[in-house]
Specification:
The structure holds 2 protein chains of 2 kinds. Chain A is α+β, with helices and mostly antiparallel strands. Helices cover 45% and strands 15% of the residues of chain A. Classes of the chains: A alpha+beta, B alpha+beta.
């Protein structure tokens, strides 16, 4: 029985979420992430530093998460960047956070796109303190996760937040920019 | 002639976490400035005295709403105790059991949501302006 035919991405994501994913309490997750951010704020005092740190943490998570993702979803290599965007939104986010962000604002050369997240589970019940509202990207860990995961599949990307409802904007939007496809590197020692 | 109420959220160390005064349309500036100031100090004392009564009562029952726990001249004090020992005290002059119970329950929900915010410290004063607006709206609704 060959699994050559890939069912539509959205269906796959849903099925996997229902059957192959262990689940924990949403509040526990939100509180854990919240205390991570609160502790980082206490340790660093400088919001740019905290953003960078969250991104680094996310990167480490992403690098390992991609293996889990590929194992659970079994999606084939994406044909182009648009397919990548679709897979991230419909399968990736669905499996790990049970949300389906919308892919939008694809650039003319298909190298950039936006992910619009409504209902960010990381930020439930969160209210930013006054002075943080201008500089802190609360869910910055997501940027790092995407960057790390895509780097493991040979794509170098830059991910940044464009707007965040916690800051008073209308939507939470992530901008993903493809920098370049990484060449397969031959491990040192092989000829 | 003051048909207003005074609401305090008291932490476990008897420290006020949030205070608010609700009254009829003429709140804040208006006639009786002096009376308001006097009452303000008095309010804190009255509630503080009532805390002892609340502490006694709360171990006797497993209900959260303690109804009217104390009386001072013409003021009644109603109390509501949360699971973590935080006390919601309401100083009022018109006994209005149902409205007050609903007010306490809604405020309790708001309080829980504020606690879930990772940026609030435990036993710290609750300064969020959104919380303030919401509690005032609830007061207008139920009191």
């Amino acid at each position: 029985m060959l699994r050559q035919q890939q069912p539509p991405a959205r269906q796959t994501g849903d099925d996997i979420w229902k059957t192959r994913v262990d689940k924990i309490s949403a509040e526990l997750f939100t509180l854990t992430y919240g205390s991570v951010v609160a502790q980082l704020l206490k340790d660093h005092e400088n919001y740019a530093e905290v953003n960078k740190h969250l991104d680094k943490m996310g990167y480490n998570i992403g690098v390992k998460l991609i293996e889990d993702f590929l194992a659970k979803s079994g999606v084939h290599r994406c044909g182009d960047f648009r397919e990548t965007a679709d897979t991230i939104a419909k399968v990736g986010f669905k499996i790990f956070l049970n949300i389906t962000p919308t892919v939008a604002n694809f650039s003319a050369d298909s190298k950039e796109f936006s992910l619009i997240i409504d209902d960010n589970p990381l930020a439930e019940f969160v209210e930013l303190p006054e002075d943080a509202a201008g500089e802190l990207w609360y869910s910055n860990i997501l940027c790092g996760v995407l960057r790390g995961a895509l780097e493991m599949v040979q794509m170098q990307v830059e991910v940044t937040f464009v707007s965040d409802v916690l800051r008073g904007d209308d939507v939470t939007e992530l901008r993903v920019k493809l920098v370049k496809y990484l060449e397969e590197e031959v491990p040192a020692g092989e000829d | 002639m003051s048909s207003n109420s005074y609401f305090v959220i008291v932490g476990t160390r008897d420290n006020p976490l949030y205070e608010a005064e609700f009254g009829p349309a003429s709140r804040g500036d208006g006639g009786g400035h002096q009376k308001k100031d006097e009452h303000k100090h008095l309010n804190q004392f009255i509630v503080h005295a009532a805390l002892d009564v609340v502490d006694d009562l709360m171990w006797g029952t497993n209900a959260m709403y303690l109804k009217v726990v104390d009386k001072f001249n013409e003021w009644f004090i109603s109390a509501y105790v949360t699971a973590s020992g935080t006390r919601f005290m309401l100083l009022h002059d018109a006994p209005n059991q149902d409205g007050i119970r609903n007010f306490f329950q809604d405020t309790h929900e708001l309080y829980i949501k504020t606690l879930l915010n990772p940026f609030t410290e435990t036993n710290a004063t609750l300064t969020s302006p959104t919380l303030d607006t919401k509690i005032r709206a609830l007061a207008r609704k139920w009191l």
